[in-house]
Amino acid sequence: DAGVTQSPTHLIKTRGQQVTLRCSPISGHKSVSWYQQVLGQGPQFIFQYYEKEERGRGNFPDRFSARQFPNYSSELNVNALLLGDSALYLCASSLGAGSSYNEQFFGPGTRLTVL
Amino acid sequence: AQSVTQPDIHITVSEGASLELRCNYSYGATPYLFWYVQSPGQGLQLLLKYFSGDTLVQGIKGFEAEFKRSQSSFNLRKPSVHWSDAAEYFCAVGRGGSQGNLIFGKGTKLSVKP
Fold first, then answer.
1. Do the chains contact at B99 and A48, CB–CB below 8 Å?
2. For residues A91 and A32, is the Cβ–Cβ distance under 8 A?
3. Shortest Cα distance from A42 to chain B (angstroms)?
4. What is the pLDDT of residues A67-109, one digit of tens each?
5. How confident is the model at residue B110 (pLDDT cuts 50, 70, 90)?
6. Which residues are paired to B74 by β-bridges?
7. With 70 as the cut, is the pLDDT of residue A17 above it?
8. Cα B67–B37–A59 angle (5° rounding)?
9. How far is CA B60 from CA A56, B47, B65, in A?
């Protein structure tokens, strides 16, 4: 069975540009979460979606947005990129979203570099 | 607010030696606790988790962790480290209720000496 997949693997953008990252969850999983991992830090929660609805939002500016599609895949959009947005963006999927005992399975991440 | 502290940024152990990675959490209710491992360039892999019940939990790759409520700790242990265990280890606490997001510590990098 395929795990969580993310695309692209790597991405280089310049300040002010916009970027879209994509995530496909494990088959049967209905929840997708996004995390940002800056070099040397632990992942920080950005968004959680369940059944196409936003279930949670971390402490990130409005430049960050996301959505979930009917097939449960998800996109993370970041507008007006800043140098500080350079990070590994991780997607995690789980069966449900109601409680943390829905184990989250992580994808390999998208490495975003902003120049 | 919930938080996770991993006091050790970097630990080096000899192959075959025992290992203990420390994790302290701050959470108002009964926590859901996790340990993840991340190899270079990879995503996160779940090693083990604690939700309730037995405070000593067994995970994959020979790892175990003990939940100590009185110390707000969830330390990860392994009796004999292998060179392939070199990686970064993250402790996380899960929020209950309607949100399932995880709050991670800053991680401990493990190096293994031959």
1. yes
2. yes
3. 4
4. 999 999 999 999 999 999 999 999 999 988 765 557 889 999 9
5. very high
6. B67
7. yes
8. 85
9. 30, 5, 11
B50 vs A101: CA distance, rounded Å: 9
Question: Do B102 and B92 contact (CB within 8 A), yes or no?
Answer: yes
Asked if pLDDT for residue B70 goes beyond 70, the answer is: yes
Give the list of residues 6+ apart from residue A2 with CB closer than 8 angstroms, or none: A24, A26, A27
CA-to-CA separations, A71 to A28, A34, A79, B26, B109, in angstroms, rounded: 10, 17, 24, 36, 37
Of A40, A42, A100, the CB nearest to B94: A100
| B84 three-class SS | helix
Q: Indicate whether A45 pLDDT > 70.
A: yes
Taken as a whole, chain B contains a residue count of: 114
Which helix (H) or strand (E) segment holds residue B13: the answer is: strand B10-14
